[in-house]
Amino acid sequence: MKKHGIAILGFGVVGGGVADLITNNREEIKSYLGCEVEIKRILDLRDFPSSPFSSLVTHDFTDVINDEDVDTVMEMMGGSHPAYEYTVASLKAGKNVITSNKEVVANFGDEFVRIAKEMGVSYRFEAAVGGGIPVINPLLGCVRQNKIHEVRGILNGTTNYILTKMFTYGDSFENALADAQAKGYAEANPAADVEGTDACRKITILTALATDKLYDVKTVHTEGITGIRKADVLAAEKLSHKIKLLGRCIAEDGVNYVMVCPFLLPSDSPLSTVSGVYNAVEVVGDPLGNVMFYGQGAGAGATASAVVGDLLPIIAYGSENPIVPGFNRVSTPADEAFLRFESKKYIALPKGNEEKVREIFGNVDFIESEECAFITECESEARTNESLEAIGVPCLSKIRFL
Amino acid sequence: MKKHGIAILGFGVVGGGVADLITNNREEIKSYLGCEVEIKRILDLRDFPSSPFSSLVTHDFTDVINDEDVDTVMEMMGGSHPAYEYTVASLKAGKNVITSNKEVVANFGDEFVRIAKEMGVSYRFEAAVGGGIPVINPLLGCVRQNKIHEVRGILNGTTNYILTKMFTYGDSFENALADAQAKGYAEANPAADVEGTDACRKITILTALATDKLYDVKTVHTEGITGIRKADVLAAEKLSHKIKLLGRCIAEDGVNYVMVCPFLLPSDSPLSTVSGVYNAVEVVGDPLGNVMFYGQGAGAGATASAVVGDLLPIIAYGSENPIVPGFNRVSTPADEAFLRFESKKYIALPKGNEEKVREIFGNVDFIESEECAFITECESEARTNESLEAIGVPCLSKIRFL
Prior knowledge:
The structure is a homodimer. Chain A is of the alpha/beta class and about 400 residues long.
């Protein structure tokens, strides 16, 4: 039976999960891939003296590059550097690269795909969005014959867990975050999750897959959930809505509106039923209608499943990958269009501003609340900003409706 | 630009949807496939004098077979015959075949896959399960490196619509069915839907994809929803559960439990939130956890999307398809194992049998009801059947818990 040699870069949670999957599911992998997968090298700064893989560990990346038996490099280090350098070097050495690292895909995906094509190898990253959920392969392989109107998703499990706690148990953001940290769902430094950075990288990748345009992540309008207050949860419940942090890319008349921010979702929206650490991605296309992919968006096992799954097309069809994402880097900032993005919004101002709101926003719907809370017409970001400026009092909350 | 010629067999709802998609999304298809798709022939018994495609219509299948410009035959006739004969002839003529016809896949999939392999062409059927939802390609292409414990799904939109109406509006089965027929969701003769036959074909296909075993559909334990009464809906609501018609294949210690029947689902089950004509398929694997694919399970546009989507791997990778389902036909009847399948069950008997139930079923939980309704322990089908026989009164309802 053929053997396919792999190297694991980064022997942390996901890298360890991949090693476990390859060990525990040896039979499934053999029958699935028609080929054995053998771990040849593991690159990490640490040693793992008590691991059954300890003899494979190296601290020197050139050991990976120079090993002719390594067909595919699995990069699970996270971060941009040295993941970027190692990816480029691996591809240039004629090795396929599979990654779970959304940061490096969002920042440099266009370059990796170009080099991979030149070298006749594959660069694949199913695990970078939605953990174990098949999202990228179905998006690339099953739906692009449609006119894609929108890709939207709950792309970060930590923030979805926190919001679920706030809705189910009435927790404050601070308490829900502390609970997520205690359970290991949130990092000690949770900024990348709660401020939306992680979701922003993922929606940037999904946007590139759906529209062929790769935006600079720094230009994507990104709000996290740190500003969501108990009063907002109460207001949402009064409206029978839930608040979810969504990444969205809406393609309309040649314009892409790309954003990460909390949204108010009606209870019949499929995404509103996605709870806890689960993720989901919804694609809306013509004539497809809407389809949704749902599952565990993180965790060693689920992510490892996606990483190892990316071997199948490489082994079945060969290294050369004709179904590549159209990662065309665009210089237009993504948030340029965002000011023209139209939505209904829930807005909370300090009590006592009702008269001014009526005067400036017109005939809005007020929500029963201890604050001056109301719902705007469907209007552009620019318009809402102007109105709020004209009112001239601090805005306590502004949350868009889906 | 390259051209890929197709023939449409059956110019009904789905066939028409495919022609519309190819016409309306010409640009998307070109950029997606890197190739133009051209309809060369349309086979139907009818003429379509007012259709823009009227000149392509033929009543003679040999026109399709003899047309060298037809690379791929799309079979959307439904039924086993002559779909079977046309599929075999097309494959043997060296043409790829794509189908939306679950009946012919469930009955003859093994033979088609074998002939396709011999001829170096593709046989693909994404549209046969879940309409527009990518299910089969992700199942074949993304998750088989896991130990698959279960594939289960809401596989029929008509019955899900009827059950949703019964739960949301308290409709009787008869009224909900009449409404579904009025809206065009159910056929005049709804037997294949409401008796579970359609779902049975689909779970037979999914079972073959997940376990490599193709069972005779006639041996799969199949119950429909015709026996679901208002009293059952009320009992389910008392338990905060919903009733859904599920196809399930549970793989446990080398045994496959394959079935189609109504189940009681707790409200936190992802499948319980799937309403109306939507379908969803959930896959449970190790270390993947559970993932779900959700969307429109029928309709011209959604199904056409899946049919046309199956062209991508053919055009990108060539006709020869190394990722084929392990359609190994097994002679063991699927329902042989079913008698050993264990589940908790809700059972309703005529009022007044409480004493007998306690005597024979032991310490069960009774549900407040005008009937003698109770919940059994988790026990085998055989055991429950024996107990019911011993009680010897007509069973009004027996619905399993998920």
